[in-house]
């Protein structure tokens, strides 16, 4: 692996962390990174693909209560039903859109797809995932963000 590939991966990881800091308004902790992607049918999964100079995908997974808690922190009121489903996609857009903007500061052009809601997670199409486990302090539940980067 070249230095450029490592550098791009570091920018993507750092950009994801910075994006989280910008949009998460609830208390959270980031646990140790892992190369394991959770495969759990109880988790609501949304994927946004990256293309351009950074190819891959971002997979965000959490229970509905986790997304609801994040939404409540952002909007000041609980969200549920269709609004919650819409919020999950919008949360993914905010995170990935911020990441694409931050990557442009490093001269990396990255386009993002619309969110895809997944009933089944298939991680075989990407190599070397990096998963960021995020513990929401008050809920003691996790939000998982997996980065699949093909450079």
TrEMBL record:
Sorted UniProt keywords: Chemotaxis
Top-level lineage group: Bacteria
Pfam families (UniProt xref): CheX (PF13690)
Domain Chemotaxis phosphatase CheX-like: 46-133
Keyword Nucleotide-binding among record annotations: no
PANTHER family xrefs: CHEY-P PHOSPHATASE CHEX (PTHR39452)
Protein name: Chemotaxis protein CheX
Biological source species: Metabacillus niabensis
């Amino acid at each position: 692996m070249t230095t450029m590939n490592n550098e791009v991966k570091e920018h993507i990881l750092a950009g994801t962390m910075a994006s989280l800091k910008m949009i998460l308004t609830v208390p959270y902790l980031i646990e140790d990174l892992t190369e394991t992607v959770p495969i759990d049918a109880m988790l609501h999964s949304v994927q946004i693909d990256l293309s351009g100079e950074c190819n891959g995908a971002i997979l965000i997974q959490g229970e509905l209560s986790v997304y609801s808690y994040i939404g409540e922190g952002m909007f000041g009121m609980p969200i549920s039903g269709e609004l919650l489903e819409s919020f999950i996609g919008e949360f993914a857009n905010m995170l990935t859109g911020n990441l694409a903007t931050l990557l442009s500061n490093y001269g990396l052009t990255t386009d993002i797809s619309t969110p895809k809601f997944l009933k089944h997670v298939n991680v075989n199409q990407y190599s070397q995932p990096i998963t960021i486990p995020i513990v929401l302090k008050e809920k003691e539940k996790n939000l998982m963000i997996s980065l699949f980067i093909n450079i």
